């Protein structure tokens, strides 16, 4: 092989390597944690929350008296989309909101079912998990909610497609999570977080990419936090 061919191959290899590196950087920067978050009212009482440390939710509570290794079952309530107002002029179809709720439920179920027996009713040794996505659109109108309809045991598949490609989200979504003892109602964990997408919002179906990426990360982070509280040694931090 002559020097010219070798140089071309080397150059092509460098281009390929550069493309992988750029793709990796873009993937890592797809979403980031917001600087602050405004509670929506879903949790009711926020007095127990404190500012989270690096790598944690923006606001967090973990009950130090919780016997987390004692829980072997988990009751995952339908995910709620908790809007504090009506949609803006770029209206989001109800079907899209339903899909968002269903997708998040699927992602959460996929993660927590690896560590817990999933149940549909309260009982002993059971965690009850309530989750809401908030701040989808901000306005001053009345409260409104959409709830997922994903049954326990549903086969997990990829994210569903959305009805429209309108610019629905502004690239940032908030979540509120409440974990209690399913039998006694004792509060074990609570968190409020907000993440911001890294993409430019355009009128295409890709507007939902940020939302799906954020929900997938939150699902993995939730499993990681539960793993930490159980004291397991093989917990995988999705942001490490």
What does this protein look like?
By secondary structure, the protein is an alpha/beta fold. The protein has two domains: 1-33; 34-230, 2-Layer Sandwich (Double Stranded RNA Binding Domain), CATH 3.30.160. It is 28% helix and 22% strand. The chain is built from three helices and ten strands; from the N terminus they run αβββββαβββββα. The protein has helices at residues 3-28, 94-112, 209-230; strands spanning 31-33, 50-51, 59-62, 73-76, 80-83, 117-118, 126-134, 144-147, 172-181, 187-197. Strands 1, 2, 3, 4, 5, 6, 7, 8, 9 and 10 form a ten-stranded mixed β-sheet that branches. Helix 2 packs parallel to helix 3. The protein is globular and about 40 Å long. Mean pLDDT is 74; it is low at 8-29, 85-90, 137-144, 151-159, 161-170 and 199-206.
Outline:
The protein has helices at residues 3-28, 94-112, 209-230, and strands at 31-33, 50-51, 59-62, 73-76, 80-83, 117-118, 126-134, 144-147, 172-181, 187-197. The protein is an alpha/beta fold and 240 residues long. The longest helix has 26 residues, at 3-28.
């Amino acid at each position: 092989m002559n020097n010219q061919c070798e140089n071309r191959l080397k150059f092509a290899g460098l281009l390929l390597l550069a493309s992988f590196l750029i793709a990796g950087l873009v993937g890592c920067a797809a979403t980031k944690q917001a600087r602050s978050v405004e509670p929506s009212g879903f949790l009711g009482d926020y007095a127990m929350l404190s500012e989270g440390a690096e790598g944690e939710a923006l606001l967090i509570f973990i009950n130090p008296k919780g016997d987390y290794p004692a829980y072997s079952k988990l009751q995952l309530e339908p995910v709620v989309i908790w809007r504090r107002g009506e949609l803006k002029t770029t209206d989001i179809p109800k079907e899209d909101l339903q899909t968002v709720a269903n997708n998040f439920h699927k992602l959460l179920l996929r993660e927590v079912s690896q560590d817990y027996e999933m149940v549909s009713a309260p009982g002993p040794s059971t965690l009850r998990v309530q989750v809401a996505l908030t701040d989808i659109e901000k306005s001053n109108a009345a409260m409104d909610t959409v709830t997922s309809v994903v049954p326990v045991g549903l086969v997990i598949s990829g994210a569903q497609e959305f009805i429209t490609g309108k610019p629905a989200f502004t690239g940032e979504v908030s979540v509120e999570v409440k974990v209690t003892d399913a039998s006694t109602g004792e509060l074990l964990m609570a968190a409020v977080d907000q993440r911001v997408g890294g993409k430019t919002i355009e009128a295409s179906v890709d507007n939902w990419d940020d939302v799906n990426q954020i929900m997938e990360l939150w699902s993995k982070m939730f499993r990681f936090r539960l793993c930490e509280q159980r004291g397991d040694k093989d917990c995988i931090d999705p942001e490490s």
